[in-house]
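Let us work through a complete example step by step.
Step 1: write down the sequence.
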Amino acid sequence: MKALIPSQLSVADARHLLSRTGFMPSPGELQPWVGMPAEAAVDKLISAALRAKPVNPAPAFTREAWRTPYGRLADDEARKAARQQSRADTIALAAWWLQEMRDTPTPLAERMVLFWHNHFATSAQKVQQPQGMYVQHQLLRQHALGSFRELLHAVARDPAMLIYLDGAANRAQAPNENFAREVMELFTLGEGQYSERDIKEAARAFSGWAVDRETWRAQLRPRQHDDGEKTLFGRSARFDTTSALDAMLDQPAAARFITTKLWREFVSPTPNAASVERIAQRFRTSGWRTEVAFRELLLSDAFWADESRAALIKSPVELAVGTLRQFDIQLDNTLPLVAVTSRLGQMLFLPPNVKGWPGYTDWINSTSLLNRKRFTERLFRGLDMNMNSMGGGRGVDMRFDAEAWLKPMGAWPDREPDAAAQARIVEAVLATPAVNPVPAGTVGLQYLRALSLDPAFQLK
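Step 2: predict the structure and record it as tokens.
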């Protein structure tokens, strides 16, 4: 069979690659990649992401003294005020991250942080300290394309995770199994790859951790740790946190589980078992380097196959951020986007549960599809009227140069594009041909608005 990996990226190829590894590219962003060999393009993307740094300063509260969790305050009024402040800080943190996604020159780095944020789902609602959520975010950012083993070990000792999955309440005298169960089911192995005894024994191995909320540090308290012999996956030893996690990674299912999850996020909803096994082996032998598995995925025939294109559904964050990036729309603040993504089902730092957002077809139902179309409709209406229409009662300055966007396509803001220009515009905006034809006589901004309302705009 002829290899499907392009020797030179076409416009459609470049759009497919950048859409899957970022947030929908603008025509200007696409051009430097057209004509590049796929292997060189993938290496360039990964190399840039490994060196990526945030381009905007984090919210001021992340540099302030640690606040007392509102749940620990005795006074009702103080607790109410602290809860409101915590929510405001969480919204500010989400807005900052959305701004990073909008502005970053290395969108793959942000996409990988978003992937791990969903994989190691942790909610600010239970943690109650947005500063701690920022610390965890920095941890995910540090290891986004590095060693999965190092990331797993770091997350297991992260104060936010210890609070969220009750690891800080796990004592030798009264083992708490929450983290032990989820680290196997959701973080490393998947269902059916461990026994109930493995959960109980792992819980003993993870016992003894506590969180100092004043310094936001995890501490192992030896007197609370069960240092006795445990049996995990049929092997007996005096397992602790480090050796128990490594025992999970030693299971053949571990590399397969993470590779499968990466496949569903970046390639297609239907993983190929043989390809997953091959990539999983490379993943393990590389020392659990995520960038190695990711490169193998992007340079697989499956990634470039016709059936994998337009096969995934944009998450609310991808839809919101991607629309801004794709049309080069500038906002003076991204607070309204927090309300948009939340309304569409994805409030950053507040996943629905430890399983995170299920994604794919769960993003779409009759209500969410209507709200998705309402978002782009209001966005383009606001651009047309030069005012904010995204809602939330917050004034926001939006800027879009329609002529600069349309001119390279051979189109103009006040004229209906000819057939050739229409084809170029559709290729730049949609991952697949439009479901509904744009009405004749539609021009400029309204032409782009019509494409954003097409069902195909929801696909990547």
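Step 3: interpret the result. The chain has a mean pLDDT of 95.
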